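Lecture notes, unit on protein representations.

Consider one protein chain, 161 amino acids long.
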Amino acid sequence: MSFLQNWPAFRSARPVPFVVRRRAVVIGCIAMVVTPFILPIVVGICLEALVFLGVSALEDQAEAFGVLMGFSLMGVIPAIILTIPLAMFAIKTGFAGWAVATASGGIVGYLLFRYVFDFDGIALLLGAGFGVAYAAIFWFAARLSTPLAFVQYDAGTEDQG
């Protein structure tokens, strides 16, 4: 079994019990909510290390990143409302791969920025980008925490992760 077989792009394990689906979705949602709090701290620590080393040209970009993460938190809760039924359905039907998740996240981000926040133009691409990023975070956390929801194991397989 190859490594990429454990990280499906399109098709995932099926059938998956409800308890396993729920666990994957809950942990993915927790990761989406925690990320806007953790990532700016990590970027801030890295920025302080760069300033200490004498490379301070990235201060403005890091500050803008922190502001964007703060604003992205406003979109996480409406995104989760759309994510929960989509993810439960995708896992149930066996189409919960990372490519499906990130494409769905881009669509959800676009729709949120277009219809909930009423943005136009280039901001819609930013919304789709945030959607893809948060969907990748969701899928990665769900996959690492609940591999049974994503990988179909054979009876004789030794590698379970």
